[in-house]
Each structure stands twice: as structure tokens, then as C-alpha cells.
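Reading group handout, session on sequence-to-structure problems. Before we discuss, look at one worked example. The prompt was deliberately terse, the way you'd type it at a terminal:

> structure Ankyrin repeat domain-containing protein

The input record follows.
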Amino acid sequence: MDKQIIPIINAARSGDVTLLQSLVTSETNINSNDEKGYTPLIIACYNNQLGAANWLIDHGANVNATDFGGNTALMGACFKGHEDIVELLIANGADLNRQHGNGGTALMFAAIFGRHDILSILLKHGADKTLLDSRGLSVFDLVVQQGNEVALEILECYV
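And the output record:
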């Protein structure tokens, strides 16, 4: 782990763009991971820090970087329900169909956690509904298990 990344991650968490500007130099690996595998962008997105996320992307942050569990910034934003962050990541090339260590996708996170607006955003941008997690379950299976009829209706609109 690059110990220089810790203050950058803390600035990303709080959304302090001015501090990010002072900490990040041309020698900084903006995609370094902390001890849990988080990158500054993953942390900014998870904490709904749109300005920091945008600044990090503009300065070379990899929108598809993963933590040690295979989770991306997009997955975190879907889990937390941060629509503006989801839109920013998609606009900057986030892989909608990346699967984490257990095969889950951003679409599955949105569906499981009842993020219906984000579910629609992902589907509108072409997220794959046919992917299966490590248990062999699709996003359809997951919403049926939960009895989430709204998510099921949204998924069926994008057949």
C-alpha cells in the first residue's frame, strides 16, 4: 500500500477538492489502494462526493478500478443510491457489466437495494440483465426473491 494515498482518500471521503489539488502531484498514483483496496474514486463515490469524484476522474482516476473484493465505484454508488454519481461514472466509461468476486453487478446492487431510479438508468445505458452471480442467480431471480414488484416491472420494460 502506498501510504501517500491515505490523505488523498481522506480528502476524497470529505469531498475536499482544494485539498485534493494540493495533495495530488504528477508523481501521484491516483489509482493506488488503501489497506482495504479502496481507491480515492471509490471512496468519493461511495460517500456521494460528486465534486471530488469529478475532479479525480479529470485527473486520471480509473472509473473501473476495483477494491480487493472486486467492487467498483459504480457498484458502491448503486448500493448507496447516488444517482448523480452513477450518471458521472457512466458518462466516463464505467463498465456496467463488471462482476465483483461473487458475480454481483451494479444492476444487481441497484435492484437488491431498491434503487429503482438507478435501475432504470443502468438499463437505459445497456446493463446486461442476463448475467448470473456465483450462485447462478440473475437480477430477475434476486428481485423475485425479495418480492420487489417495482424492480420487476422496471426490468420487464427493458426486454
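Points for discussion. First: DSSP finds ten helices and no strands in the chain. Second: Residues 1-95 form a domain with the Serine Threonine Protein Phosphatase 5, Tetratricopeptide repeat fold (CATH 1.25.40.20).
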